[in-house]
Design a protein that fits this description.
By secondary structure, this protein is an all-alpha fold. The protein has helices at 35-45, 56-77, 83-101, 106-129, and strands spanning 10-11, 20-21.
Length: 155
């Protein structure tokens, strides 16, 4: 996957091992476990779909990115014994299913936000299992053009 912040391709790495960047520029996620999941999460977290200027194309793009992220998380979670994380991932998929049934209105955005929050919890659990610190999107905010991200106080 290409890092949404720096554009560097993250080469596949075994689950939980540090990612390797394949480009000349340092990546903010380089050397971190689950770098692809973390970068994918942040690309959605800081995405335009959460801004007041978002349109239906932005929401559709975020929906596709979120579905991909959830599937990538499912793959990373497969070999792990984390039943609570599996429940959270199932809740994320349920929220996305509900979001896909609706229009591009506030309820859809709320369900997508719920799915992203559940995904963040699972990423946190995976990191915890590897002894890594939790993922904090705020640590990467400078790499994104995200002045209007809601819930900033939750960082």
């Amino acid at each position: 996957m290409n890092c949404p912040a720096c554009g560097v391709e993250h080469l596949p790495a075994p689950a939980g091992t540090p990612a390797v960047s394949g480009g000349p520029r340092p990546c903010p996620y380089g050397g971190a476990p689950y770098a692809g999941l973390r970068a994918g999460h942040d690309r959605i977290f800081f995405g335009r779909w959460r801004s007041t200027e978002a349109n239906s194309l932005d929401v559709r793009k975020a929906r596709n990115q979120l579905n991909k992220l959830l599937n990538d998380i499912a793959g990373a979670l497969e070999p792990e014994r984390l039943p609570a994380s599996r429940k959270d991932l199932n809740k994320a998929f349920e929220a996305m299913h509900t979001a896909e049934l609706g229009e591009d209105g506030p309820e859809t955005l709320l369900y997508m936000d719920h799915a992203l929050s559940y995904a963040h919890r699972v990423i946190g659990d995976l990191l915890h299992e590897k002894g890594a610190p939790p993922h904090a999107p705020g640590d990467f905010a400078a790499w994104y053009d995200a002045p209007e991200v809601p819930f900033r106080e939750d960082w």
